[in-house]
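Deliverable D4.2, example record:
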Amino acid sequence: MNKIKWVILSVTVLLAVSALVEINSLSNQIRSSEQEKVTLWANAISQKAQLVSYSEEFFEQVALDEHRKMAMYANILRSFDRRGLGSDADFSLDYVRYIVDSCETSILITDKDSLITVPSEFAGQKLNDSLLAEFSHNEPIHYHIWGMPMTLYYKESKVYTDLRHMLDGLSESFLTEITNNSVFVPVLIVDSLQGEVLGSGNMSEREFATPERLSHKLCEMEEANDPIEFRLPNGRRAYLFYETTPLLKALRWIPLLYLFVLAVLIIISYHLFRTARTMEQNKIWVGMAKETAHQLGTPISSLMAWTQYLHGKTLDDQYALEINKDLERLDTVAHRFSKIGSVPELKPENLCETIRRTVGYLQTRSSKKVTFSVNCPDEELVVPLNSYLFEWVIENLCKNAIDAMDGVGHINIVVSADSKQVYVDVTDTGKGIPKSMQKKIFQSGFTTKQRGWGLGLTLARRIIVDYHKGHIFIKYSVEGQGTCFRISLRK
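Output generated by the structure prediction step:
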């Protein structure tokens, strides 16, 4: 039967370990896949950040080219002032108008009184108000033509405007893609000083609500992954911090979780088997007790009848008295075994009187080389007892002590009490119990005797702990000097 239990337990553990290995393998695959997604996302963000940076540089280059072109126009117009009026003046003016009209950059040329001369649709109009604000984003260029002071105003070309809108849209989509990423990566975008949050995604604002929390969170994220540096369209540098996804964090604990579940299953299985074994032992004890009580009942009844018959004969009455003691003893044994299979009734009993009665019976039937002493307090100690079973415990302890002393020595029983408990110490002068055996002596079947059953102390513990709700244990034991057992009972 035990082999079958161990086989079942081994198969259960093997299946649980196999399931754990498979789950751990699946978890590792999911974790690797998730980590790969995060890595691909980070690489894509880094490449897009470089694209934004290159676009910003290109945008600056276009703006510089616009300014150079306007400077070139102004130099051409200045040349007229140096050459003065001539026969080719009309041709030169047509040439300048052609250059200006072919330029995609919107320009305005005014005279000294801020009256517009070019383009023709605004000719004679004074440059002020909204029109002046529109053309004042760039520094105007001053020059003279034919001795007259002129001023050139210009604004960005259509190409420049389209590029700027495209770059703004690219930057906006870039930040939106970071904060609302499809792989649910927690991200933070901060400025170059790492003191201002420019954007966040998949994170609670409470995590970076204060400068201290922001600094702590950035340190945590930097430990997980290196930040990505990029430049915003306004020229500001920014840093992208990110960490692993919540799914990756959860997958990290799955193996430990299943190890815990496996341990719980093993512990439960062990306790179930142990409980089943204990139940089997209990059934054996109960069956043995019931059968013993049944077997003893018939001869006891017969002996009691014969004793009554012998009382009227000429035999010495001392024989009848001794037979009566043994009959009472058999009756007590029968009562003891009959109580093991059911919950015994506890009655208030004088503890010292019960102990003295038990010791008196043992003393007359033990070796004369074994002496007994019982020390009780002056006051009467009444505790709830089942005297049949409690006497059995005292007998078992005393008989074990006699065996440990090899029939020669002293047994001392001391009864003491405090406000809540009563203590019974049974001390012998025997060989003592080795420390390696002290934890096993109450186990069923454990014995050091060649013909012992290993049930005496097991039954004693059951009687004290289960029936009387007390405790029994080794108070101390010294090899070669003796052992002291202590019983504690509630008052």
